[in-house]
Each structure stands twice: as C-alpha cells, then as structure tokens.
Amino acid sequence: MTCCKCAEYEWADPQEVVYTDPEGKGYCVFHAPLYEKRISNDDFNKRVFERLRESKLFEGSGRFCDLSGVVFPQEIKFQQVGQFPKVRFNSACFEGFADFSEVDFGGFALFKETIFSQGASLSEAKFNGVAYFGKTELEIMYILT
Ligand SMILES: [Zn+2]
User: Fold this and answer.
1) Domain tally for the chain?
2) 73 lies in a domain?
3) Which residue among 4, 19, 29, 120 has the highest number of C-beta atoms inside a 10 angstrom radius?
4) Residue 65 lies in a domain
C-alpha cells in the first residue's frame, strides 16, 4: 500500500505508509495528520530538509521537490537548506510558524492553497524563478525588508 495523499498529489516517489486511518487509508510520514507521524517533530523537520537537499541532486532532469499536501507539525526554519531546488508546497499545511527568511529559492516556488496557521516570514527571501501564492491562507505574514 502506498500513501493515499502521495497518489492524490501525484508525487513522483510515493512514500511508505506509517499510519492507516480508521477507513483503511494509508498515509506516509509527510502526509500523516498531526500526532500520527510516528516520529518526533524535530526528526520530521530533518526528513523535510533531506528531501529538499536530495532534490537538488536531480536538478536538470526536470524533477522538483514535491512537498504538496505535506502536514508540517511544528515551526520550521528553512535557512539550513541553502539554495532551494524547485519546490511545490501546494495545499501544504504549516501548523507552526514557517520561516523562509533569507531563503534563496533557486527555481520556481509554488504555494497554491498553502495554509500557514501561525504565519510565515519571507523576509529577504530571494526568488529566482516564478513564485506563486494563489489562494494561500496567511493569517499573519511578515515581510520585513
Ligand atoms: Zn504521502
């Protein structure tokens, strides 16, 4: 069984299931609901950073880092990733603050229908490609320049 959300968002690399809901649908660590991830929040963030770094190795092949539909359980600070690969955060949900300040987005950055429950910072972030924020829910957004 592969993750139902990896299928829904058409991930090129569907992930292993870590949680099965009462209806029998499977979820990977990235898509599992809050409190069902089976790893600590810090380890979860590390998995996200690994996924971003790995995607950089495939640049040029048309691949991008797919983080669509991901449920981020806590605050996450992206500075340590270095330059971002092309990335898709469509329909992702950030339960904690999302800190993209000073991040260098190397390619496109898609944030369609992304939910930032606790706000996000894009202060001094660099966009080198297309940045798309259609229908994104930002309750509090800090843009300081
Ligand atoms: Zn998944």
Assistant:
1) 1
2) yes
3) 120
4) yes
Helix, strand, or coil (residue 26): strand
**Distance from the CA of 62 to the center of ligand 1, in angstroms?**
21
State the Cα–Cα distance between residues 105 and 87, nearest whole angstrom: 8
User: What residue numbers bound the domain in which 81 lies?
Assistant: 41-142
Question: pLDDT confidence of 144, banded at 50, 70, 90?
Answer: very low
Q: How far is the CA of 120 from the centre of ligand 1 (A)?
A: 23
pTM: 0.90
Closest Cα partner for 114 from 141, 97, 131, 135?
135
- % pLDDT > 70, the chain: 94
Given pLDDT bands bounded at 50, 70 and 90, which one contains residue 138? low
Tokens coding 4: 């139902």
Q: Domain for residue 27, yes or no?
A: no
C-alpha 135 – ligand 1 centre gap (Å)? 22
